[in-house]
Structures are given as C-alpha cells and as structure tokens.
Amino acid sequence: MTEKRYLFTPGPTPVPPEVLAALAEPVVHHRGPDYKVLFGECLERLGAVCRTQNDVLLFTCSGTGAMESAVANLCSPGDPVLVVSAGYFGERWAALAKAYGAELDHLRYSWGEIPTADDVAARLREREAAAVFFTHSETSTGVVLDPQPFAAAAREAGALSVVDAVSSLGAVPLETDAWGLDVVASGAQKALMTPPGLAMTTGSPAAWERAASSTSPRFYWDWEKTRKGQQTLDAPVTPPVSLVAGLDVALGMLLEEGLEAAFDRHRRLGRACREGLKAMGLQLSSPDDDSSAVVTAAYAPDGIDSDELVLLLRDRHGVTLAPGQGELKGKIFRIGHIGYYDVFDIITALAAVELGLVELGAEVERGVAVTRALEAFEHTPV
Ligand code: PMP
After folding, report:
1. For residues 148 and 173, is the Cβ–Cβ distance under 8 A?
2. Is the N-terminal amide bond of 17 cis, ω within 30° of 0?
3. Does this model's pTM top 0.90?
4. How many Å lie between the centroid of ligand 1 and the Cα of residue 34?
5. In sequence order, what are the residues at sequence separation of 6 or more whose Cβ sits closer than 8 angstroms to the Cβ of residue 378?
6. Contact by Cβ (8 Å): 256, 271
7. With a 6 A CB cut-off, is 50 part of the ligand 1 pocket?
C-alpha cells in the first residue's frame, strides 16, 4: 500500500474532502457573476467567524501578509508601538514593526510565559504607544491568552489593539467587536481548514481612521484599495478563485457545526492530547489547562532529541508532527489540533509518538496514552 500520510501540525492542517472537491471545480473568472456570488458569501461568512460587523479584508498571502498589512496601514515611520512577545510569532510583530520604521517598545517574555494585561497597562503608563501588537495563540509554545483585557489596556491608553489570531480564529473564542479588538489578523490554513494562500484582517472604525493618516508606503497591502474593491465584490488584484471557493465551503462547514460547538471540540481535543501525553510519562511544555486548545507541546524524554522523533515519525510512519521552534528546537515536539480534527486523530498522533519513542529507546508504558485520551475526551462535558 502506498504510505498513508497523517498531518498533525498546527498549520497547514488537513483539508476536508468537501473543501478539496471545491478546489477541484473549474476555474471561474474573478470579474464574472459566479465569482461575485461566491466572494460575497465568503466575506459574509468571514465576518460571522470573526464576529465583526466591520469589513473583513481578504488578501492572497499567508498569515504574515495580513500581519504586515496591519503594520503598513496603521504605523507611520517613527510611531511609538508596543509589541508583546512570548515566543516565535510574537517576535514577528517586532520584526515587522522594525521593518516599517516604528519606534519599538518590546515587552518580551521568555518563551512559554503567559503575558498579562497588567504588565501591558503598566508599560503603557511608562511609555505611550499608538498601537499594541500581541499574539492570541502563540503557536510555538501552545499558550493561548485572553485578548479582551489586553484590548482594554490598549484602549485605556489611547492605543489600537492589533491581534495575531493566525492559529486561533475558528478554534478558540474570539469576539472581535464585543471585545473591542481593533484589528484581528488571521490565515486560512489553520482552523479554517483551507490550504495555505489566503489571509484576512478586520478593522474597527478607529483602525480605519488611523489607516487614513498612515504614511507608510504600501501598494499590495493597501487596506483602502482592498476595501474599495470588496465593496463591489471585486478585488484590486486577481484573487485565487479556487482557494476562495475552498475557504467558502470550509467556513460554511464551521458555521454549520456552530462556533461554540467547534470551540468545545477543540477544548476536548486539547484535553485528550494532554492527558494522553502525560499518561505516557511525558512532561508538557504547553499549559496544562483548557486554554491550550490549539497545539499541545511536550518535552522529549531525557536523552532524546525531539527533532529526531519528528523525523523518524515522518520518514518511517508517514506521521507529521511539528518540531520545536527557535529556543525550543530539539527539546519539544508539538501536536496541532485545530481545524478538521476529531478524537481519532489525537489517538493516532499519540500512538505514533508512543511507537516512535519506543523505537528511539525510551521507556514508555505501552497502551495507556490512548485509553487515557479517550477517557478525557469522553468525560469532558460539552
Ligand atoms: N502567527 C502565528 C500565531 C502562527 O501560528 C503563524 C503560522 N504558523 C504565523 C503567525 C505566520 O503565518 P504564516 O506562516 O501563514 O505567514
């Protein structure tokens, strides 16, 4: 049999057959009536998933492009900004702010620490900022924070709140309007169950006001140009029509499941994954609580390089986990569970980790992880 492949990474994620079928439909012209209907529906569904009444702008790029668009449209060179980082993707906000010549104040936590809104408020009292950039779900560490108090701290200090929700949108609760998040940037290839290539941002009225006066150069990332196009269901550049068709189907599936049901599912998957890894005797590096519903990270046992485990599982068993990034490289491995996952995916991932560790000579009690994970999943009230 041709090797069957399993994808357990927190992006890209497995794509449901319904979405794959939409991707295989004949290509339509992006200025024709068929596309306009599709585009309109997709934008409306995106608004529902982001829980915003404001426009959601759709860009042809990965998540970083949406993040860059936020910096390009909100920051003029020399603007003071605050970046909160506690991992690999928080650092990306800092790099983007620097690239656009903003005056960067970097509230940097060590990787895996959980940033607090109190720290942000205190920092903003020391030094003003035009915008506060932070990460909802830090995919490199598994930490998911509550964006609401961060947005409140920013608002109180007269700053915009700009959230990286690349790995959180559609997986964990995110209320763009109700929580007063000025900008939410995300991507399609994670909990939105679509192949990579599309990213989106929201913008509050305050964010749009700022965008009108920002002097940073931009063309592809220009929000106003994109919004104008979208208002007539057009786009300033040729959109990836097939990906938009796929995203539309994926968003329809997510909304049909119901966002609250999807959040519950992700919470239970996280619980099952954590309990399974712990039953195997592994130490978690992501938080051991329900906030951590995006990706579960664990240390490899002493004497085992986690990169070696990831490679072995991929090459010998067709199972792809995510390695540790940056400072955590070689130490941890990560199991993603956002998007098109159910408990049997978690069971497969855990069984693979167990097998891989045994093959690498680790002492692991056999069979307990799967049982424990199923129990944790079943006994979690919905
Ligand atoms: N932020 C977070 C939290 C992410 O998980 C990722 C992707 N792993 C990104 C930003 C960057 O997105 P992309 O790779 O799609 O540009």
Report:
1. no
2. no
3. yes
4. 31
5. none
6. no
7. no
